[in-house]
Amino acid sequence: MMSPEKADKVTNVSDLIGSWGPLQKKIFGLLAIIYVVAPFNYLGITYYALKDEIWCEQNNGTKIILHSDKCTFDELESCKQWGFETDRITISREWNMICERYWLKSFTLSVYVFGYLISGIVIGYISDKFGRKFALACSVFLEIISQIGIIFTSNLYVFIVLRVIDGIGGYGRYIVALILCEYSNGFKIHLNVNMNFIRMENVGPNHRGKMVISFEWLWYIATYVMIITCYFVLDFRTIFIGITIYQLATLIAIYYLPESPRWQLISGDKTKAGIILRQYSELDEDIFNAKFGQLCENLNELQLKEKENEKFNIFRLFKYKETRKIFLCFLVIWLMRSFVEDGIYYVSFDLSSSVFINNAIFTAFAAATNLYMTYSVDKYRRKVLLIAGLILSSVSLALAIPFANSDKMFPMVLFVALGNCFITSTYSLIYTYTPEVFPTQIRNVAVGICSSVDKVASIFGTFINQVTASYNLKVTLIVLAIPGLIAAGFTTLLNETKGVEIPDTIEEMIQINSKKNKRTNK
User: Fold this and answer.
1) H or E stretch covering 462
2) Looking at the structure, do residues 334 and 291 belong to the same domain, yes or no?
3) Which UniProt keywords apply (predicted)?
């Protein structure tokens, strides 16, 4: 029989079935099949909202080219006949998102991200209440239903509503897949669902980081597949037909996906959890039963701590000057950082070179950055890395400004790609840095609000093309270069967290920051 001392150490599901055994491999493999469609849902439509050039045949028989973001409908009416330069069936062409209606393109792209804001609460709640597997199935069903509607609708406003629903399902599929690989240290999942904050639910501590990174690489690989596919497929409805067929097939993967044993235990269904864990455990019966019993006890204690933390809310942050300053600094940093990252992606559609080549280059730079940050985030100081990434992004974008509106496209694309490289480097960093600053009592709420601000900034980022339409590309690059400097300035007001104990209470957070201020003043 197992000794109590050893049993007391049982805190994770992996203590019963190992860190990377058959169950984890099965879950990861099935989730990978479900997850790889994500870039098609999120970014695929952008390649069917390109800036279409318009040809206009004048009354004297000559043809001129009009820019879809600069023209007016009066100019088109004066044409003997007019049409689009390309054969691509885009949403811009389908609903005449040109001239005075050009702003509709940015609005239509932004509503998908608005669905993200709703999904974090709705799908997160369903996941906690009814199970990960059920929430995942609901998310995919929402996507399938909305995509079928998109294929057949000819009404712009119906299309917009369907894209919001698609966004709810898309982000739901993303967060539930990660929740199945991760657990939240007792915090409520639907308030913070980012993969860099919550820990893996079924995978052991030694493999959690690798699983997070694996999901990132799945994204990059799928993004390249998406870029190539969208290049050859000319009709946006054809893309949605393909996505729908694929996601119908993923329902088979969901059917064979095991429910999370950890969720079953927390929900009180110990029998089903025990059956799954016993099936994949190599321990003998007595040791397994002892460990399983201790795991149940530890999870009960975890839930009690969670209820205790629920007594503390975000408003306590505003009670003290120091905490108020730190929280507001992070809100600005998240807002500025996300706006620049999304803005750079959408500004690639305003560059005169091929948007497909541009984004292939951007993705390659982002992948290289992800590889570098994987080995650097725990090696160097968080604050220094964050400031460096923000400033270098702004400098790179500033260096691209002289080449805007000129024939020298390669230098501009290179500098914009570098700007994307550096701002991307801050993504995993900000999700590592932020939860290390806030105390356990309100960490989940604080990071959840910051994550929501991130999504709001993403919505604004989709409108960056309107700046180019109203002014020019130089102004757009200036607009993108400034926020990084602002965010870097606010970062200097924060304390370093590398090698510092993470606070459990607001009082500890104030104490840590006070020690930092005393060292600065000496």
Assistant:
1) none
2) no
3) Membrane, Transmembrane, Transmembrane helix
